[in-house]
Amino acid sequence: MIAVAFRSTLAATLVALTLAAPVQAAGYRDTDVAMTVQEDLDLSRYLGTWYEIARFPNRFEQGCAAVTAEYSPLPKDRIKVVNSCRKGGVTGPLETAEGVARVAGPGKLEVSFVSWLRLLPFTWGDYWVLDVDADYQVAVIGTPKGKQGWILARTPNISATELEAAKAVLRKNGYDTGALEMVPQN
Prior knowledge:
This protein is of the alpha+beta class.
C-alpha cells in the first residue's frame, strides 16, 4: 500500500513538474501579443546612468539592490554597458558586469556580457526599449520571449503616476505585471 501511494505521489509530482516547466520557460509575457518598441529611440539621449526601479525576477539579479546601468558610446555603433548591483541590500558589496550592446533595429538592442563569445550570434540577448518618455527620464525595457523586463529611471525613485504609466506599457506588450518586483535603491 505504501509503495502504491509513493508511486502515485511520484507520478503526480512528475506530471506537475512537466506541466509547470513550459510555463516557467515561457516567461512573464504572453508572446501572442505583438510587441511595440520606441522606434524613434535617440541613442545619444538614452546614454548615461539609469536606476532600476522594477524588474521581473531573473537569476542573474537575484539578491540585487541599488541596481544601476550605465551606457556609454563605443566605436562602430556599439555601446558599453556597465551594470552594477549591491548584493544582499543597498549597503551590500558592489558587483559589476561589463558588456557591449549593438543596435539590432529601431528601438531594439542586443547585449552580450561574455566577450570571448561575441562572435557567436546566439550569445547576444535581446534588449528592446518598449517606451521612453519625452524627457528620457523613464524607460521600459522588455524581451520578445518575456523572460526579462525592467522599468528604469534617471533618478532612484519615480512617482506613482510614472510607475503606473510604465506598468501600462508592459501590460500593453503582454506582460503580467503581477510578477514585477520593486528594486530597493536607498
